[in-house]
Amino acid sequence: MALLDIENLTVEYPVRHGIFTAVDDVSLTVERGEILGIVGESGAGKSTIGNAVMGLLSSPGRIAGGTVSLEGDRIDALNAAKMRSLRGKRIGMIFQDPMTSLNPLETIENQLIETIDHHLHVGTAEAKERAIRLLEQVGIADAPNRIKQYPHEFSGGMRQRVVIALALCAEPDLIIADEPTTALDVSIQAQILDLIKRLCREENVGMILVTHDMGVIAETADRVAVMYRGKLVELGDTAQIIGQPQHPYTKVLISAVPPSNKRIDRFTRVDYAQSGTPPKADIDLNTHWLGDGPARQIDGQAMLTVASLNKVFRSGGGLFGGKAQENHAVKDVSFHVKAGETFGIVGESGSGKSTIARLITGIHKPTSGEIHFNGDPLHEKPKTGEEILRRRQVQMVFQDPYSSLNARMRVGDIVAEPIRVNGTAPSTSAARTIAADLLALVELDADAALKYPHAFSGGQRQRISIARALASRPRFLICDEPTSALDVSIQAQILNLLKDLQAKLDLTLLFISHDLPVMRQMCDRIAVMRYGEIVEQSGGEAIFTAPQHSYTRSLIDLMPKFEPDRM
Amino acid sequence: MTRMHAFLSSDFFWKFKRSPVAIVSFTVAMILILSAVFAPLIAPHDPFNPGSLNLMNGFSKPMEPNQFTGDTFWLGTDDQGRDVFSTILYGMRISLFVGVASVAFALVLGVSLGLLAAMAGGRTDAIIMRLADIQLSFPAILIAMLVFGIAKGITPVHLREEMAIWVLIISIGLSDWVQFARVVRGSAMVERQKEYVEAAILIGRGPIAIAVRHILPNIVASVLVIATISLALAIIAEATLSFLGVGAPPTQPSLGTLIRIGQGYLFSGEWWILFFPAGTLLALALSVNLLGDWLRNVLNPKLD
After folding, report:
1. Exposure of A253 by Cβ count < 10 A (0-12 exposed, 13-18 middle, 19+ buried)?
2. Structural domains for chain A
3. I need a labelling partner for A16 at 20 to 30 A (CA). Which of A52, A291, A305, B70 fits?
4. Cβ contacts (< 8 Å) between B127 and chain A: which residues?
5. CB-based contact (8 Å) between A465 and chain B?
6. Per residue in B77-99, pLDDT tens?
7. pTM, full prediction
């Protein structure tokens, strides 16, 4: 008998326009000591399965069919009280965001003891001993002292360890981990995944690992269930799913994941999720407005030069003075970007990579140092009107597709705005025509111009964001984590689009990301940043094949390995 | 027509149809507002035309024929023989006009100052918001009375009667701008951090265009909610001032003035002179307030 047996599970959400089936007739089993990965893109229903097993479906969701059994006992129709006693005791849960899944007002000790005593009734003294043992087990050094601390005294990775300790404290049979490492940096992600794997073996618990990240699945799971729009499309051993996917969707999904061990030119077959064929723009740059912009530069010439750049943020102070705090976000950074290339900046959160982007675009002013773009000093105020216009050649594609578009403007107006503001088109109607061409260039339908941003998915919004950047006729495009908020197949489409546009329009790209496999696919040269400093800079492949700095080496070591050709 | 259709099929209208509170309060508010607007058409008498009054009709009870003239008045009459129903309709006009105008004044002032504070930051922000804090530490009604007193002092005597309504509007508006400024500043600072604002800077938009074209449309929902709730408060503030005798002049009686006049008769048995204006004020303020509350839940702006 399997530890967890899900049979023909169907979960429905009654909504305004009928019923939305989030999970459609899914059957899965989990054995003791096994990690079952559930993978899929957003809206695939993968988290809903975990929530249905836990009895935590958000209202008005309901289990419309099928059964869930834990060691042969049905648990899908239990009343609230029985479900509560099951939750935490026999089924543990690890949530995505360690910053919000602990109570900030209680010490770690109180939270652990409360949970242990509640489920096992062992008394406070015994519970405390167990709590310390658990913390040691999840790799927290100096546990007897650290247990007295509050969550804010722990880093993100350490908090996730505490969350795991909480999930383990009633010695559950099954753990459901919902994107347990998505909010963490690569180096911490690797440690947490190791910990999860080890605990599953040692404690002989079954685990459902819900994630969108194929790399995490490849490293951790024994078996994989692939979900697509509520349906289970493929189930099999990890090696089989990644090495020889059978279902067409799985094939698309696998081919969209940037391989960590080699550079490929384009992502193939990534159009499964799209309905219909996207319009293909056929713009002749010799006659079109877009080709009429500033003169191109010869490839290989230095286009952007950054020398000894420093940025110190001061916070605090105010009307009555007061002591300001300093944060040295960028320290003595120098690099240059050649015309026509893609230069990458990689680093973990807080390494200062986004700050560099905002120093180049002028959103922040540098504390010291120089930035030159085609000879113009970007670190100074522009002196002439022409210089201001030349600076429009630097444009940016942002990380968050949901906040980078003005929700109250029509898409056509968003794209036409730069053209109108800078007066680069003879008339408003000409600007509108150009905007329509740009939308076609990023492969959006013609009627997109009349809609508002909320009508579009994340990937489509990112296309609109790219079209808006192109409307300033840029020569230099900064992409700050342009795909980190997107699903993997959408990411592949956007990366393909960026490559196509770069070739067609002769763009120079500054590509900023934390995702090493993505960087490997996109960048000609890469700089690695840590704590505001560049620790290493070299050719794109060289970073992966012959890393020089120890930090780079550890990053390369720790990145989730996704190598379908070796499976 | 497509706009109408879009509205009828929107989530907003869908939620409205499913909220009894919203439907009832909207209906009540609409009936009151429309009857105030069309008072000259609806009112059976013109309370401001002394020629139409008959002193013999004084103190008629509601729904009962007058003992001398045999005339019947729905809601009775006051000491002068004025029809209470008609005076309420005309009084509500004044109340609503003062309420709407003072909210509009507070809105323009508060939104501009709030946006300025959020965009300028630094010292400008500190000065505007500290001013707001100082003002908040006084009861709004005291501020309104203070402004009203000063304004009365500096207006020429022969203009006082005419100016009274405008002075009232400005004093209530001045006591209410802080709410708008605070919410607008807070929301604008959140919006300012968003990437679409950075994109607007990058394409060469100036700070004023960014504030007006980009940020303002995105915080309109919170402003709308504050405006609705403020309307109820402004109507009450006007009534309070008029009740205290410093508001609408007796020649242009508002609901508050009517209540002040009516309370003199409460214990002598003529309850209707007070009761109906007070009930109308209650219904008006409550329905507008409930509507504002519902709007806040639906539009869900982050209010503190």
Report:
1. buried
2. 32-43+85-256 (3.40.50.300), 289-314+325-566 (3.40.50.300)
3. A52
4. 319
5. yes
6. 887 778 889 899 999 999 999 99
7. 0.83
